[in-house]
Specification:
Distance between the termini: 28 Å
Radius of gyration: 17 Å
Number of helices: 8
Largest sheet: 9 strands, mixed
Number of strands: 9
Low-confidence stretches: none
Structural class: alpha/beta
Helix content: 25-40%
Order of helices and strands: EHEEHEHEHEHHEEEHH
Mean pLDDT: 92
Strand order of the largest sheet: 3-2-1-4-5-6-7-8-9
Shape: globular
Amino acid sequence: MKQATPVSRPVALTIAGSDSGGGAGIQADLQSMTARGAFGTSVVTAVTAQNTRGVEDTHVLPPYQVDAQYRAVADDFDVQAVKTGMLATAPIIETVADGLADLAAPAVVDPVMVAASGDRLLEPEAEAAYESLLEQATLVTPNADEAAVLTSIEPTDRASAVEAGEALLDLGVDAALIKGGHIDTDPVRDYLVTEETTHTFEHARIDTAATHGSGCVLSSAIAGELACGASLTDAVSDSVAFMEAAVRNHYDLGHGPGAVNPWANRSN
């Protein structure tokens, strides 16, 4: 009889919605965390019926169930980093913020607030509730549209992106990564704004519509890197390159644009 050969990995946690199409949400998060060297655990906030063509239905879980999942993970695992994605409602955002207040681990907040069409995904009270979550966050990763919702500053260039990042710091977050995918530049420039400095990360703009899940892949990769002990700057730098590879080498699946590929350039 062979003996077991257990493997130990740092634990990361994703708190987000489920994507039945597998291209985003919990499914993409867990793949990204695993690819970056962490063991992924999850708290599901909502169940969506979706595929490569779009979302057909959404069921948001009650806050007590979100809290129960979180407590089950936190009571058993030594969670080294967390990322949040689709939180849907003000009560869920507040529940998650309360949980993170008790957790001594870095938290990456991906503020899923605006659809690719430009439509707002949250009610005003839910948008306002994000302030309590940002107070618990190590990093927030908004695209230009989300940064505008959170700060009333629309990033259109480096100066306005840094201004939006600094406004987010004023809300209590330790650092802000203003993503440049929705800003008309080539190469794409992402700006990591901290109290001390601003780092700029450049990557080529890829000519594809298969970008669904790219934000999930980026934020969960950062959380995975942080769980493994990387510094914030190194985690962001490596994860930006990881996300670019996931989009460039996307999966050609379904009848829509396809899905990002978190295994395109794995490190473990």
